Amino acid sequence: MPDLPPLKIHVAIATVGRAAILCQVLRLLASQSRRPDGVVVVGTCAGDVDGVSRAFPGSEVLISQKGLCRQRNMALRHLVGRADIVVFFDDDFLPESDYLAEVERRMAADPAVVGLTGQLLADGAHTSEISFTEGVRILENSHVPPRLKTERTSWLYGCNMAIRTAAAPALRFDECLPLYGWQEDVDFSHRLGSFGTMLRSRELTGVHLGARSGRISGVRFGYSQIANIVYLRRKQTIGLRHGFGLMARNVASNLARSVWPEPHIDRRGRLAGNAIGFIDLLRGRVDPGRVERL
């Protein structure tokens, strides 16, 4: 088998208000069988990145304005000319120990592949929050279900996405999606996909803890559930069925569960945000940026 061409792989992590979890994730990242060529952590203040240099010696720390898209774009600008592949991890994502090795193998084997995302062993964002200890236990006992197949995809899941920088060197996340940037990964993926193949790989696995700390308020998130979909539909970077189907399901869930909400979800706040979003839509002034003023 011929030697794989060398690729420079850098990991970028945007973080807000989760320094303790972030440092645990960074210590785990150090155990990758293929170590990253660099790690860039982008916080919004010193408290966000406290302990990073000890958790992963040699990592680079940047301070940005708050906002997932702004923070990820700062990392991309910082890595121009230095990285062949940028792997974006959420600050509560635990990658399997061979994650970066598999990214390198896939990207080196097929130059047409411009984006990769994994198939998760567990995702606390869609259930209840998973503790770091439980996440590590899941990784240590992981067996990828046979039903999971490597397949083409039009969407890279934002908690773990690898991009080939040469495919679209000027591509950036849309900073009109502020704060949590809900659906920023769908928008970015749609634009990246026009430059080549994107895959959801069964060889890339991990656990998304779904940490609740650092999240935006229920009202703000509920507003984004309306405004961001409308905005991306106007951009035509989210499908009609996907976009409005997602909106309808979210509003229905917020309405149905507002009577007996889950302890970890502010359903009533989200429902109030949904209502403000619909009112703005009817008035012709719905705007994702309004969440910064709510």
TrEMBL record:
Enzyme kind, highest EC tier: transferase
Domain Glycosyltransferase 2-like residues, every copy: 11-115
Any one GO molecular-function label of the UniProt entry: glycosyltransferase activity
Organism domain of life: Bacteria
Enzyme Commission no: 2.4.-.-
Pfam families: Glycos_transf_2 (PF00535)
Protein keywords: Glycosyltransferase, Transferase
First and last residue of the signal peptide: none
CDD domains attached to this UniProt entry: Glyco_tranf_GTA_type (cd00761)
Membership in a protein family: Belongs to the glycosyltransferase 2 family.
Name of protein: Glycosyltransferase family 2 protein
Originating organism: Novosphingobium aquiterrae
